[in-house]
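Re: the request from the purification team.
They wanted to know what the chain is likely to look like in 3D before they choose a buffer screen. I agreed to run a prediction and write the result into the notebook, where they can find it.
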Amino acid sequence: MSYPELFLKKNEDKRLRQGHLWVFSNEVDIKRSPLDQFAAGDLCLVKDSGGNALGVAYINPNVLICARILTRKPNTKIGENFFKARLTQALQLRERLFDKPYYRLVFAESDGLPGLVIDRFNKVISVQITTAGMEQHKEVLVKVLVELLAPDAVLLKNDNSQRQVESLSLEPEVAYGELPERLLIEENGAQFIINVAEGQKTGWFYDHRISRGQFAQWSKGLKVLDLFSYAGGWGVSAAVAGAAEVTCVDSSESALGLAAESAALNGVSEKIDFVRSDVFEFLKQAREQNLHFDAIVLDPPALIKRKKDFKAGYEAYRRLNQLALQVLSNNGVLVSASCSHHLSRDNLHEILRSSARHIDRNLVMFASGGQGPDHPIHPALPETDYLKTFFCSVSARQ
């Protein structure tokens, strides 16, 4: 198989040889391989300055990450057999990890398919394609998914800001079958009603599954506050596991509606209050009213989406954690999480330490977590290790 060649500048191959999969536009030798000779989504053979092949990639000359490696084998044909092999390998891992078909089937680079995320909700498959290169192969992807999984529906969930960067359509597309308005999924002994078409990201956040299960077991008999609750993954699970009462707070009326439906489905409606509010405002009012909770889950969306947003995002995380600590009962439990790649585990650790000291509380971390096993971490791509969670016990000054 012959592909047009993309040459790197001298000494710009080191990161790729260490296992990374991205080529940045400023690493390309544009004299030997002008970027304007490629169209967005083209396949190419990446070579170092000495002409040695580094792998087959797809390219978009119009973005900063201009090429992403698909395979290290230079003669590989990127077609149906390639995608079938990669998806089969991903499926085998998930079936080894989970006994029911509710999981992230593909986690982009970690599964050898950069620009692609797939979540499985039993008979419905939700697909996020975020790059022009992967977009070129969507018909083949859907065909292979139908053959492997025999789904009732495949949704191309295109409402992603990264697609805008790559100049791709943001209109969702049901690529196969008929998509039901509501889906039923199972997690940690509870059932949840979700809306894949209108929900955030692919429709559900599988990444916190293990941490949610741990928290549920530790919340028995407690008064729980679930902040940024979305569709109730933390709060409903806690109520099902025996929490005395739960308050779910989110700014989205539709998300809270789904959470309420799930609470009813699990027979715990009488335990849960659903509050539509900005979380900062809710915490300020709770502090003013002297309200306290035995356990608080603080699981915000990514507050630092770009490196240049770090300062403002760090301050937002600090304010949230400090406010949450102020309404946490003595000897209470705080679960503090961040899905922002740009906020490191050490950053969150420091935010918790300094926030506790600022309000004169004693805080110890008794457990920590990260993304579940269906979100595997690529050892050469720190970007794939994004989720961090601390379980804290907080008491009065000692």
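For the purification team: The longest helix spans residues 80-97.
Please add any questions underneath this entry.
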